[in-house]
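REQUEST FORM: STRUCTURE PREDICTION
Request ID: SP-0412
Submitted by: Lab K.M.
Chain count: 1
Length (residues): 298
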Amino acid sequence: MRVAVTGASGLIGSALVPELRAQGHDVIRLVRRAPSAADEVRWDPTTGEVDLDGLAGVDGIVHLAGAGVGDHRWTDDYKAEILNSRVQGTQTIARAAAALDPKPAVLVCGSAIGFYGDTGDHAVDESAPQGPGFLADVVAQWEAAAAPAVDAGIRVPFARTGLVVSSRGGAWKRILPIFKAGLGGRLGSGQQYWSYISIRDEVAALIALLTDERYAGPVNLTAPNPVTNADVTKAMGEVLSRPTVLPVPGFALKVALGEFSSDVLGSQRVLPAVLEESGFTWSDSTIASAIQQAVAGQ
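STATUS: Completed
RESULT:
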């Protein structure tokens, strides 16, 4: 396939692009600056501009671009950036896909399990409704922004990704050094569920969504067995052979992280029903295996 990827330099995109190429796909990277390589095509989600000539002949698009949820404290300005970067970017790429002739067969849109809000210890799958909260509202608008592609008859799977376990970015890039130093511990009560996925399973799932015509609509990209933060803490200690006796109180997280602490302390027990029904196979179905991969540099 000839595949275009936005967000190719991010945590997930930088792992996806080389794997696509290793499997024989021709990959085009969409960039916001002037292209400097033969595989780069210019786009600007803030103005809605895309070099359509550069995308001519693409069979599929994977859209991963967007401001990082945990990259900054959630000020009003940054919350607006989180929302706008996703809605504007998705509208731009969906309209571009619809305008191409011939149109790509598929647009895989990055999304998030934040759609479900705080589920406590109640397990939810893709059939669950939107939950409360800022991130749930963001995801709803983010996915709705793909309407031009859906209306054009393009297959659009929404990759509702959980917590990606990787030493190269996201939450684990922050917490691994702390646990390696023997200073890690549970966050808050430790009873909140973390629905995780290893970076190699994330990439494998995205490629499945891209290449398998059975996938359309929301697809939860998580491991099949969500675990509590206390379980994560125990597994971190066992994999790293370090003590994990220093819990971080919830009030301290609220002081340090502001409103984003609600995402860390909240509980999301999300099941990947669509992947399981399709026969998808996880390389890292346990949190210990996912952590081992991260420790190995994945």
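NOTES: The chain is about 40% helix and 20% strand.
Reviewed by: T.R.
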